[in-house]
TrEMBL record:
<dbReference type="InterPro" id="IPR016164">
    <property type="entry name" value="FAD-linked_Oxase-like_C"/>
</dbReference>
<dbReference type="InterPro" id="IPR036318">
    <property type="entry name" value="FAD-bd_PCMH-like_sf"/>
</dbReference>
<dbReference type="InterPro" id="IPR016167">
    <property type="entry name" value="FAD-bd_PCMH_sub1"/>
</dbReference>
<dbReference type="GO" id="GO:0009690">
    <property type="term" value="P:cytokinin metabolic process"/>
</dbReference>
<dbReference type="InterPro" id="IPR015345">
    <property type="entry name" value="Cytokinin_DH_FAD/cytokin-bd"/>
</dbReference>
<dbReference type="InterPro" id="IPR016169">
    <property type="entry name" value="FAD-bd_PCMH_sub2"/>
</dbReference>
<feature type="domain" description="FAD-binding PCMH-type">
    <location>
        <begin position="58"/>
        <end position="241"/>
    </location>
</feature>
<dbReference type="Pfam" id="PF09265">
    <property type="entry name" value="Cytokin-bind"/>
</dbReference>
<dbReference type="InterPro" id="IPR050432">
    <property type="entry name" value="FAD-linked_Oxidoreductases_BP"/>
</dbReference>
<feature type="signal peptide">
    <location>
        <begin position="1"/>
        <end position="14"/>
    </location>
</feature>
<dbReference type="GO" id="GO:0071949">
    <property type="term" value="F:FAD binding"/>
</dbReference>
<keyword id="KW-0285">Flavoprotein</keyword>
<keyword id="KW-0274">FAD</keyword>
<keyword id="KW-0560">Oxidoreductase</keyword>
<protein>
    <recommendedName>
        <fullName>cytokinin dehydrogenase</fullName>
        <ecNumber>1.5.99.12</ecNumber>
    </recommendedName>
</protein>
<dbReference type="InterPro" id="IPR016170">
    <property type="entry name" value="Cytok_DH_C_sf"/>
</dbReference>
<keyword id="KW-0732">Signal</keyword>
Length: 532
């Protein structure tokens, strides 16, 4: 009965919202007289929907949500706020797959970017160019999901070159961070594969930018955590799409052998070989999670996991490490040809003999692989739970120290729910003019590791325990002088951000003063708590 009553009340509230919405107490009244006002929502249902994110670590409702019909609506909203005597914060929200409130706007307006792609009568917001005169590219709205970009490019036999592990994220959301995955060792992060952007700045100006035009905004916005503008279009480079993927996991008990092989696989020599992986990542599975964790996963059968658990016990290793590699191939390549290529590649590696796990899938199945995990977790209520995630970039020279201190000491007897990723990338593939930061490499020959501690929490106690654990990891890095950088970073003070950006800080402050002087945009990061 109470559910019925609640849905009746929400219908009534929604009906009152058709147009124009009721003004929100904390926003200027004349906002609700603007041309875009019919697309503002102030009812509790609408604001509650955007008051947290995938991480569920922070909750704060905005005063209103804008469902823009065009980038012009976004610009008009920001212009209104920027010129108001009482400016209010504005946060674009893609899929809300952040985990520390980065897409929230307490006291202000969340822009539901996904609305830009809705509406049957609007011009398509994904356009592929595949003419013979220039390299192929796709122009995609910032609100588009990478999965939809893939769907649009594949009929042309084309696809973007770099993917995040999960592709139901928006173009603007991942480009505001960097967008990393197993192809980044060869092509750099997603931000290094973009040639042009349309951006609405924090003063409400709509600007097109590239390496040669308004280049400070272009480099600033890529990896810019939404601080300088809202990305409404990105021109993304494409490559010929393969049809199928041979996908392997190779088990190691020794971190040195594991990292040595990973680095061999991403080295420039190797990457340019015909026989090479097109995707290289890696995972760490703590021994306790093999013994006490799930009995099967979408990749490993129960029999595989029981063999791996035995391997862990026999070797006495605190963890098993997996290299995850993928070799793309065309439909007309024969199975024997692919087998031979794979064999030639595996011969160079030192994984535990017999511990090769292979799958053969379509390219789309491979790219959309996390969707299967999402469905499974959703079916047992384990997807929409708090995620106190910690992502670090650790330079190659300290990765074994990190492993010793974290996986073999701090987490030795732990069995947290979640997964741990660990894979190397080539720093030379990142463009240092962009806002995203990587660790200073020194004598590392330009390689650093992404280490992702992707935890799920099932109770408030879990959240506290995992947060303490994350804190201990960060403290260990500071104590040992492991100069790591957070990726998808979370800092609670401007000092923390200054340290995070290091030598880039002064340029970031200048860009903020130029493009968002009132500090309206994406306030959830807490980089600029007040106007600059
Ligand atoms: P949101 O969470 O909605 O927004 C993120 C930030 O960007 C906010 O500050 C927001 O205000 C701002 N923003 C949103 N849209 C725009 C825009 N158009 N213009 C400017 N600013 C904008 N990341 C990786 O790099 N590699 C991975 O493999 C990877 N895997 C993931 C797997 C899962 C299951 C999840 C939940 C996240 C993963 N991520 C990964 C992290 C992900 O890239 C970021 O959380 C990203 O921000 C999510 O995109 P979103 O569309 O949900 O952005």
């Amino acid at each position: 009965l109470s559910a019925l009553l609640a849905s009746f009340l929400s219908l009534v509230a929604g009906a009152g919202q058709l147009r124009p919405p009721l003004p929100a107490a904390c926003l200027p009244r004349d906002l609700f007289g603007q041309g875009f006002a019919p697309r503002l929502r102030t009812d509790r249902n609408s604001t509650a929907r955007v008051s947290t994110d995938f991480g569920q670590m922070v909750t704060a409702a905005p005063e209103a949500v804008l469902h823009p019909a065009s980038p012009g609506d976004v610009a008009a909203l920001i212009r209104f706020s920027a010129s108001s005597p009482a400016p209010f914060p504005v946060a674009p929200r893609g899929q809300g797959h952040s985990w520390r409130g980065q897409a929230l706007a307490p006291g202000g307006v969340v822009v539901d970017m996904r609305a830009l792609g809705r509406g049957r009568h609007r011009a398509p917001r994904i356009n592929v160019s595949s003419s013979a005169d220039e390299p192929p590219y796709v122009d995609a709205g910032g609100e588009q999901l990478w999965a939809d970009v893939l769907r649009a490019t594949l009929p042309h036999g084309l696809a973007p070159r770099v993917w995040t592990d999960y592709i139901r994220l928006t173009v603007g959301g991942t480009l505001s961070n960097a967008g990393i995955g197993g192809q980044a060792f060869r092509h750099g992060p997603q931000i290094a594969n973009v040639d042009e952007l349309d951006v609405v700045t924090g003063t409400g100006e709509m600007m097109t930018c590239s390496k040669n035009k308004n280049s400070d905004l272009f480099f600033g916005a890529l990896g810019g955590l939404g601080q300088f503008g809202v990305i409404t279009r990105a021109r993304i480079r494409l490559e010929r799409a393969p049809k199928r993927v041979r996908w392997v996991r190779l088990a190691y008990t020794d971190v040195v052998a594991f990292t040595k092989d990973q680095e061999l696989l991403i080295s420039d020599n190797q990457a340019s070989e015909v026989v090479a992986f097109d995707y290289v990542e890696g995972q760490v599975q703590l021994k306790q999670s093999l013994v006490k964790g799930p009995k099967s996963t979408p990749f490993f059968s129960a029999a595989d996991l029981s063999r791996l658990a035995k391997l862990a016990s026999m070797s006495g290793s605190a963890a098993i490490y997996y290299i995850e590699g993928a070799m793309y191939y065309a439909e007309d390549d024969t199975a024997t040809f692919v087998d031979q290529k794979m064999e030639a590649l595996l011969e160079q590696l030192s994984f535990e003999p017999g511990f090769v796990f292979t799958k053969d899938v379509t390219y789309v199945q491979f790219l959309d692989r996390v969707r299967e995990e999402e469905r499974e977790l959703q079916s047992v209520g384990a997807w929409e739970v708090p995620h106190p995630w910690l992502n670090l970039f650790v330079s190659r020279s300290r990765i074994v120290d990190f492993d010793n201190g974290v996986f073999k000491a701090l987490l030795k007897d732990a069995n947290p729910a979640g997964i741990i990723l660990m894979y190397p990338m080539n720093k030379g593939k990142w463009d240092d003019r962009m806002t995203a930061v990587t660790p200073t490499t020194g004598e590392d020959d330009g390689v650093f590791y992404a280490v992702s501690l992707l935890w799920s929490a099932f109770s408030p106690e879990d959240v506290h325990r995992l947060e303490r654990q994350n804190k201990a990891v960060l403290e260990f890095c500071v104590q040992e002088g492991i100069g790591c950088k957070q990726y998808l970073a979370h800092h609670t003070s401007q000092e923390g951000w200054q340290q995070h950006f290091g030598a880039k800080w002064s340029r970031i402050a200048e860009l903020k003063a130029k493009y968002d002087p009132q500090a309206l945009l994406s306030p959830g990061h807490r980089i600029f708590p007040k106007p600059v």
